[in-house]
Amino acid sequence: MATKTVDRPDLRLVEPSDTSEDGIAETAAAEAEGYLLYLDPRDLLGHRGNLRRDLGDLSELQASIAAEGVLQALTVIPESGDRFRVVAGHRRTAAASAALDAGEWNPAIAPTVPCLVRPDLAERPAEQIFAMLGENDHRTDLTVSERSKGYAQLAAFDIAPSEIARRASIKVEHVKAAIRLDVMDDEVKAKADAGHLTFDDILALEEFEDDPEVQQRIVAAAGTSWGVRHEMATERRKRNDKVRVAELKAELETAGVREVAKPKGWPYESKAVGVARLADAGGKPLDVEAVKTAEGFAAFIDTVGSPEVVYVCLDPEGMGYKRPNSSSYRSPEERKRASEKREADEQRMVALNVAASVRRKFIRETWGSAKAAKELLEEATRAAATYPYDLAARNTQDFLAVMAGGSLDNLATARLERLQRMLVCRWIAGQEEHITDVGRMGYEFTKRPHQAIAWFDRLTAKGYGLSPAEAQLYEKLTDRVAQIAVEAQQRAVAERDAQLRKAAEVGGGDSVVFMLWPVPDGDVVNWQLVAGDGEHIDELPGDDVAQVQQWAAGVLEKMEFEATQWVEKHDEASSTTYYVIEFEEDDGYADEPDAVDGETDGAGGEPDASLSEPV
Questions:
Q1: Which sequence spans correspond to the domains of the chain?
Q2: How large is the C-alpha radius of gyration of the chain?
């Protein structure tokens, strides 16, 4: 085996044959620090507990080592028979061996690698693991599952998670999560290595240990880390709903209320009617508390949204009660669709509410401190100056208080920095309020879909992942933007035509009117050149009015109209500025082209004078 020593001021090489008192002491000290040897990498033994499952692509590392050698010493421990075992540096060992075997090694460099020999680690396997964990091997760090394997091995040596955390400089909770990860299946480990499962996620999975199917569904959602968190929130809501249903059932039983299944066709097609919607023969509304245990009355637990008790009268007509009058007739098909829509809307709102709990946790983590909130100060100030309604947070007061880090009272004496943070928090709460309102009322009714889209875009740009319900809402909002653009176009054309009719009436019958009218098309304005009779001549997108007028004059010039002066007009109803130009009728071109010399009217007579004179 090729062995070479080297002088280093920080490492001493002590001959083990020195048995004097000083020699023994120096030997012990040297073993604690280690000593340097240059060894043939092909003679080194791999560690039995190597944390790396895959050495990865070594091609670049091999080329670098072949040219320059190994620059950072490997950590090895002595074995019997003058052999050495690698503790840290398995990738460099493999790359150097491959370069030597391939004949790529630089002949100017000795075919050996520097090895820091640590006799003190030979009988201390736990310390060997710590050495592996502390190794950043040629800038290729250990994967999450490889580190987890190391922490689990340390725990097997009865080293407390707190001590592992201290030595590894990580949170104790993350050590515990890593140890849990080591016993999970390869699918979970792969998702952790890909960054789709964090240590916090793995700890949170403990909540569902009693239900492996739920755990499997959560892990299956780990396309992104946020997919896991949204799925956890959904499963947590389902679990809480089950608990709540059991509580409600117990309450009904204790109160002596008869529980029934949800009536078929509820609420529009069922024979049963909610007590809250019924009146007696005299028109007086029924008192739920007074009748809920009476004969002919019952209750069911509605689980479409959040679980709630619904008290019903099973046969209102037979008991002489009045159903509520419907304001308009609806066919059975319409009632069925209405019922299905109601259920779908409630389920959508539940999903959006669950997503909101995850989203708001992300918001708190991102902008919940005074320092982080400054990032949004300019945007919040602009909203306060231009659209203060954005600061309204009627239904998000609790969230606002959490974001603000305390009470919203006594702001009258607060310092500027505190007031600025409050402004940002109110603006954030206003954005969340808008998202909630859009989800509750339906995207098709919002007049400001851009606001909700911009808020979702801001969140995703900071690393948030939308839940399926949020992604669907985002898509619907995008459709709403397109719909609003179409509606704006239609209104603009209708307003343009109305102004054309007005201009024609004012101009009289002996004039020709042309109009430049702006029609929005998304972020672009198309200027339409239109004749007085409504004929669309041409259009040009642009923001420079003078340039558009020059273009229109060129179009009219080809039609033998000399456009010299455009008159600016303003339509108050639509707040639209447009431009009009008017010509006397004989200033322009004829409807038909001039006749060619000698051309007749087609009947064999004289040339048709009407074809050679302006119309």
A1: 3-220, 239-341, 343-466, 490-587
A2: 40
